[in-house]
Amino acid sequence: MSMKRESWEQTQSRMVALGEDLVARARKAGADVAEAVVGEGSHLSAKVRMRAPELVEEAGSRGVGMRVMVGQRVAVSTTSDLTRAGLARLVEDAVELARLSEPDAFAGAPDPSQLSSPEQHAWLDLHDERIDGIDGEAALAHARRGEAAALDFDPRITNSEGATFGRASGARAVVTSGGFRGVTRGTYASLSVHPVADDVTEGGAAKKRSGYYWTSKRHHEALEADDVVGREAARRTLAKLGARKVETQEVPVIFDPDAARSLVGLLAGCIQGGSIWRRSSYLLDRLGSRVASDLVTIVDDPLIPRGPGSRAYDGEGLLSRRNVVVDGGTLRSYLLDSYSARKLGLESTASASRSGSGSVSPSTSNFVLQPGSHTPEQILGATERGFYVTEMMGFGFNAVTGDFSRGASGFWVEKGERTFAVSEVTISLDLDRLLQRIDMVGDDLDLRSSVASPTLRVSAMTLAGR
User: Fold this and answer.
1) Does pTM surpass 0.85?
2) 104 vs 305: CA distance, rounded Å
3) Which is it for the CA torsion 417, 423, 428, 434, positive or negative?
């Protein structure tokens, strides 16, 4: 890849120059607005299973995308053919497609006065040279150590679905005819371990129980140690032994961070501008109203150093900013790009995301339920009787109505302690009431993914069992 044969300064200059050339060509061909995105990157994935290598996969990519507007007619086009002829065809296709498109009264680029400049862009420490240097052998070694720690943890761990180490690295330049120029680069690495244990069900049948644990960060040094990940994966797998159903009832439900993150992710999809103007969200016309308990504050913050979803500017070139979406239970903001803001008669929240094809839509960055004051142990100890969720399965959510129902597994809680494992049950409650019934929020936030939450407890949900 060219990123490894040249300095970062040279890479930036080359990518911006290509973007500027494409924009100039499109403008000359008749586009009133032209925007180019130039991207390149690489990824590596290595998997072992039962201590033997199973997969090493490495790939690189380079491509450009364009969004052009002829009047209020919009089109996007993309190519990985960076030859002279390939780039000429890209521009030709984009402009021609725009001319053939139906006009959209809300189409348009941001006002140039809103665009950011490179000197305004925060340094967010998103790239780690060490991750760039991990080869297939080193990745396999990470995966081997993680799986070995799980297999050696306890003789009841008899099998494995494998351990996978992955790393990704990429750079992207955005150039627009409005005058914006921006280049970013970032890395990401992760390790996941999935051990399997033998179990006997209530009816005496043999069953396999699988569990997992994972770590992921932008910087190698911040990853949890391979053996720590493996041992925790083994502990979580063994804790599932003897899992059984419980009676159908209404009880308090505690969600561990991974399960709680799924709930926050559902809300994320309902507050993006596209869902609002399409009228496909239960939060339509709810700005300023109560949508969660007083304990819930959710922030979309793209400016967290080393954050998995961090960005110094949005996909349209507006300077990134911290948006408080839910403040003490009250919905304060949707997340909008310029288009959805025009549709709704509001202002952009600098939440645009640009895909490799050049298309733009609203998105979250680091969408985080802010931590509370209780430790997970305190939340558990304050629960006389209830259900502690560690995993959810299936997809049972209607964004228009807010109806929520998911398969779940975890642990039964009696007198503030986890007692036995629970599986094959369903939890349900519409998301509106679910968020408003949150009565405890933990202090154990871990930003392993761009949507994140600490442990939380919902005062009452329907649990359907036997």
Assistant:
1) yes
2) 38
3) positive
